[in-house]
Specification:
The complex is a heterodimer of chains A (260) and B (384).
Chain A (H helix, E strand, L loop, with lengths): L1 E5 L2 E3 L20 E3 L1 H17 L2 E7 L5 H10 L3 E5 L9 H12 L6 E5 L10 H9 L3 E11 L2 E7 L4 E7 L2 E5 L11 H7 L5 E3 L40 H14 L4
Parallel strand pairs in A: 1-4, 1-6, 4-5, 5-11, 6-10, 7-10
Antiparallel strand pairs in A: 2-3, 7-8, 8-9
Chain B lengths: L6 H28 L4 H9 L18 H14 L1 H21 L2 H12 L5 E4 L15 E5 L2 E11 L7 E12 L5 E11 L5 E6 L11 E11 L3 E2 L5 H37 L1 E2 L2 E2 L4 H30 L4 H26 L10 H11 L6 H13 L1
Parallel strand pairs in B: 1-4
Antiparallel strand pairs in B: 2-3, 3-7, 4-5, 5-8, 6-7, 9-10
Helix pairs in contact in B: 1-3, 3-4, 3-6, 3-7, 4-5, 4-6, 6-7, 6-8, 6-9, 7-8, 8-9, 8-10
Classes of the chains: A alpha/beta (260), B alpha+beta (384).
């Protein structure tokens, strides 16, 4: 069985977000990590590999330094890695990104494609389902459990208040939630091997059945007007009162704000 | 000459740091307080390949170099020196001599499960009457048919009761030289837990590295197979000394990690702690202390990494190992003492980790050769 996992190198937002003067993300100023949902997707693929055997390829589109995140995936246990990088692909929104990734996937054999639900830098959750549309394969999003049964997958799909259990014939695409699992650590030997392996590098010319008009900044219908960091909430007001006083205090506040 | 790390070593450091922060740091205080061996952490380390880092893949290891292993001990020790020494004693003192002196059969039998972390290793040289003067050891081994019979005891053994495989040094003969002076000839043995006549004595209550299992080993007519001999008969002393050369690099890495961990805490704390209306980091006394500590820590790191690289490329690296251990251990002691001082009263309280780090640092000046022994090794090479 062949699995392709799409991963993205994203800025680690744990330490806050930094912007360039033009409002775009200052990626150089932030530590780059593997997107958490994608890492859970990779772990899911590696567990399938451990249990029933599979060949796992990781695929990313990005700057040449996205090589780091591919090596990390190899060090965790992926078998092959493909980096799609080309100046003409820069500035892509979700449409141009999914077009590019689909163009790369057309060169690969796959039974299953796994992507993360969404990336922590864009939070759109669009790329996975769009790839499936481009390739004409079924998509099951928000997976919190994945099982392979014969030529099908059985996926537990998370909703806000319930979950669905869906069965789909492969080939298909699944988008993974970070809650799906706890990804394994790399191993020291895996890291050494990862740097011995070759990462396949593809450019625009290697993408199959894609139109230039759908690629890069020019092929991106989304225009970002403005981006900014979240405004931090104030510390709030702390009061220590007995129950009767508390009620009076709260009622006063609610009246003051015209809630009641 | 290149002082930078390549990408794979950088990535290995990221791995060790993430593991240490996530899996080891949250348990460090509890491990110290309860003096319980962190078996769960060791199991997780085994799963991630940390118990056989510099071991060739053909023996089930990770196939990495000594530098990678040293970085692992360093990063673990930054947050928990107990965890650092468990890996160090297991790897440097048990796996390494079997890899270096063992027969192919011994390597297949012992190194594989040790490198996978399915079994834990220990090394026993020190005796109640033989520390720095290792020649003073009394434990004897006598060949009886197809078995060696061991009698004696070993003390202060790291991974003492939790280990499965022990390298034990014992006297196998006494010879006289021309002037009639008696000389003990030692041999090294591989002893498995459960060997008849092998038992454990007292558990030591220690100042630091309190989660590490430190025990006395007792051999009373302990019978082990003839082929448990490691290396040639009568060559146990050079086996032990060469093993300790490697072990000292591991302990130097542990000391380095303790110093780095304490310095990291000091930087964070002095920025937050306010006295006289400003943070103590804004006061020059603190700034100069931090500068001195950072300089010393980096110098220690260079010596430790140099020794690790010497182990990879040179047959003999005693002096490099001795310098690294001497300087890193004394740096750990000096830095942790200074950091406790910067923390003031809070530094003396167990809730703040620097108190533990200061207690943990002291042992690095003592075990696997005291600082005095390291000076003997270094000066011996200068004056020969």
């Amino acid at each position: 069985m062949k699995i392709v996992v799409c991963i993205k190198q994203v800025p680690d937002t744990k330490g806050g977000v930094k912007f360039n003067p033009d409002g775009t993300l200052d990626r150089a100023a932030m530590l780059a990590i593997m997107n958490p949902d994608d890492k859970a997707g990779l772990e899911a693929a590696l567990r399938i590999k451990d249990e029933i055997g599979a060949e796992v390829t990781v695929l990313t589109m990005g700057l040449p330094k996205a090589d780091d995140v591919l090596r990390e995936a190899l060090a965790m246990g992926a078998d092959h890695a493909v980096l799609v990088t080309d100046r003409v692909l820069g500035g892509a929104d979700t449409w141009a990104t999914s077009t590019t990734i689909a163009g790369a996937l057309r060169n690969l054999d796959y039974d299953l494609i796994i992507t993360g639900r969404q990336a922590i830098d864009g939070d759109t959750a669009q790329v996975g389902p769009q790839i499936a549309e481009h390739l004409g394969v079924p998509v099951i999003s928000y997976a919190e459990d994945i099982k392979v049964e014969g030529d099908s997958v059985i996926v537990k799909r998370q909703y806000e208040d319930r979950y669905h259990v869906l069965k789909a014939k492969m080939p298909c695409l699944i988008t993974a939630l970070s809650e799906l699992n706890t990804p394994r650590y790399m191993t020291p030997g895996g890291i050494f091997d990862a740097y011995e392996k070759e990462v396949t590098v593809w450019g625009r010319a290697d993408l199959k059945d894609v139109d230039d008009a759908d690629l890069g900044l020019k092929g991106s219908p989304t225009k970002i007007a403005k981006a900014s960091d979240k405004v931090r909430k104030g510390a709030g007001e702390k009061v220590t009162l007995d129950p009767t006083e508390s009620v009076a205090y709260l009622m006063g506040k609610l009246k003051e704000k015209h809630v009641i | 000459m290149d002082f930078g790390l390549d990408k794979k070593h950088e990535m290995a450091r990221t791995l060790f740091r993430e593991f240490a922060e996530t899996e080891v740091k949250p348990r460090a205080q509890e491990v110290d307080e309860t003096e319980e061996f962190p078996a769960d952490t060791v199991a997780k380390m085994a799963k991630s390949g940390f118990m056989g880092i510099p071991v060739p893949k053909e023996y089930g290891g990770q196939g990495c170099d000594p530098l990678t292993y040293v970085m692992c001990v360093e990063e673990l020790s930054k947050v928990c020196a107990t965890t650092g020494v468990i890996v160090s004693a297991h790897t440097s003192l048990c796996i390494d001599p079997i890899l270096t002196y063992g027969t192919e059969e011994q390597k297949q039998k012992y190194v594989r499960p040790l490198a996978a972390g399915e079994k834990l290793g220990a090394f026993a040289l020190t005796e109640p009457g033989a520390g720095t003067d290792a020649q003073g050891a009394q434990t004897k081994a006598v060949l009886d048919g197809d078995e060696w019979v061991l009698n004696g005891s070993k003390c202060f053994i790291t991974n003492g009761k939790v280990a499965d495989v022990y390298i034990v040094i014992a006297i196998t003969s006494v010879t006289e030289d021309k002037r009639g002076r008696k000389k003990k000839n030692f041999s090294a043995f591989i002893v498995e837990k459960g060997a008849p006549g092998f038992s454990f004595g007292t558990k030591e209550k220690k100042m630091g590295i309190r989660g590490s299992s430190t025990y006395e080993l007792i051999f009373e007519d302990c019978r082990i197979p003839k082929d448990a001999l490691l290396g040639p008969e009568g060559k146990g002393f050079p086996v032990a000394m060469h093993t300790l050369d490697g072990g000292r690099i591991g302990i130097a890495a542990q000391a380095l990690g303790i110093a780095e961990g304490a310095l990291d805490r000091a930087i964070a704390y002095t920025k937050e702690r306010k006295q006289f209306g400003r943070s103590i980091a804004q006061q020059q006394n603190t700034q100069f202390k931090l500068a001195d500590m950072a300089t010393r820590v980096e110098a220690a790191q260079m010596l430790v990494y140099k020794a690790a690289m010497a182990k990879e490329t040179q047959k003999v690296y005693s002096v490099e190992a001795a310098k690294a251990k001497l300087f890193a251990a004394e740096t750990a002691m000096a830095v942790t003492t200074e950091v406790v001082q910067l923390f003031g009263g809070y530094g003396y309280i167990r809730e703040y980790d620097v108190e533990r780090m200061m207690r943990d640092a002291k042992i690095t000046e003592i075990y696997e050769g005291t600082s005095e022994v390291q000076r003997m090794v270094i000066s011996g090479a200068l004056l020969k």
